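User: Before I run my own analysis I want an independent prediction to cross-check against. Here's the chain; please return only the structure tokens and, at the end, one sentence I can use as a sanity check.
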Amino acid sequence: MSVTNPGAISPPTRSFPLGGTMAWWVWILAVTFVVYLFSFQTGYAIVNPSVQKDVGLNITQVGTIAAVYTWAFAICQFFGGALLDRLGSRKVLPISIALVTLGIFMFANAHSYGMLLLSQVIIAIGSCTGFVGAGYVGGQWFGMAKFSFMFGLVQVVAALTSAFSVNLIGLALSATTWRTLFNWTAISGIVLFVLALMYIRNPAPVEHHDEGGIGAFFGSVLRNMAEVAKIGHVWVAALGGAYSFGVMLALGVVWMPKLLQVHGFSEGTSNFGASMLWFGLAAGSAVIPHWSDVIQRRKLPIIVGAVVQLLALLILLYLGGIGLLFAFILCFLFGFANAAHMLAFSTAADVVKPSQIGTSAAIVNGIMFIFGGILMNRPGVRIGWGLEAGVPPASLQLAQYAALPALVACVLALLIALVMRETYPAHH
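Assistant: Structure tokens:
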């Protein structure tokens, strides 16, 4: 039986004006998907103690569950952006939403470590086109001149939602179980899937010329990825962004609440403090990409962000007896400064063709999440090593030992920012 060429399936032939009502509606749906998956991802920081107790996990397994999602996401991410470039958002995003919804339902009803890991893999496969897909929709529906701004706006919404969801999930868990909560989350995903199926589309037909069925199609995807991967600066941008955002992901999803508890704050207060990371990221994502466009520079904002986040983390780890308000300010400042990682997408997009922005964004985001997975996993492993070596449990000394990979990552992000070249279109 012959296999239909995906590129031959005709998209809607009607074209829509850029920046109009339909553009905003499609963008809102794409961003809602990002909100949906980010809320689940950051919510894991709150529910993981309940999951650990209910399923019978150890601390290493808690970190590994988050890391497996991140690694699977990163691997799939490399294909997600290229698929968007080749197929467009209409054919890709509804299927992605369906997979995430299925994975969340499995997570809510898992009774073993293996089932939790499988649910994370399914969620990761669906999520791989979420954040990049919203950026792709912004570039396609509003034009490349607004790509950096629209991508920053995606992060603003996603980070704000993550911040609020951390607190709302904490409140919800006082009234219901984590299983009930995520079963209802899966039901809301079904609603989003139906809306996406009805309304998400491309502003104009996606044009490509693949022939020869699915094999040739994926061959063209790999060739497109290889073409972008040959550009050295894409890798510089990816590594700089990865070292920076990887730390944010590790702290925001797993470790910041535990670090704040070491400072003597209650579990609820620590969870709220961790949400300040996301509030900061939201504020920074609204400011830093815009600042980059105003000064027509990529490099300077990235350097400033790397310096501030390193200083904030050093204070949180090495200054004992910090007050509650100061700890919250430091979390906010770390998140705000970390928003400079968004310029990794912009500087990579500066050096590729417009038809390859999805692929470049996917490579950058994929590398970010690979390092995010490593940085989620390593502190848990190092905590075990530290306890075996006699480091006092639940101590600042143990937190410092566990957080060494995060500090190294922040230093490397700063070094890359210092040596990277300027790519703003007016200057390269």
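Sanity check: The chain has two domains: 20-203, 224-427.
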